[in-house]
Design a protein that fits this description.
The protein is of the alpha+beta class and 167 residues long. It is 41% helix and 21% strand. The chain has six helices and eight strands; from the N terminus they run H-E-E-H-E-E-E-H-H-E-H-H-E-E. Helix 3 packs across helix 4.
Length: 167
Amino acid sequence: MKQAILFTLLSLSIFSCQKNDLSSPEETPTEEATSYKVNKATLLQLVNNVRAAGCTCGSTVMPPVSPVTWNDLLAKAAYGHSLDMMQKNYFNHTGSDGSDAGQRITAAGYVWTAYGENIANGYPNETAVMNGWLNSEGHCKNIMNAAVIEMGAGREANYWTQLFGRR
C-alpha cells in the first residue's frame, strides 16, 4: 500500500504543472547566459522540460511537444515590450503605441507564420515567472503550443514578456 501511494505521489510530481514542480536549473546567471535581462538558458530549459513532459493547462491535458529554440529577434521584441510597460507604468498585451505582439515581432525583423505572447509582472526570477505562467490556462497553452518552435524573452524590472514563434 505504501509503495502504491509513493508511486502515485511520484507520478503526480513528475507529470503535473503545479508551481512547486519547477526548480531553477541554474541559480546564478553568467553574463553569457543572460540576454535582454533574462537568463535564457534557464528559461529555455524550464520551458522545454514542461514541453517534454506534457502538462495540464486549466482543465486541458496538453501532450508532450517538441522543444523550442532561443531566438534573439523574439527576445528583442519581448524586451522592448517589457521596457515599454515598465517605463509607461502599464501592464497589457497592447503596447503604449497601440501595437500588438505580431506587429512588435515583425518590427524586430522576425517574419512569422505563428506566434504567442505571455506577459507577467512582479516575479523575481525565471522559475517564479514560469510557475505563474503555468498556473494561468492561456499562458500555459502558449508554452505548450506545438505550432511554435522558437522562443525569446525579455525583462525590465519585474515586467516579463515571453514570445513564441514559427517562421
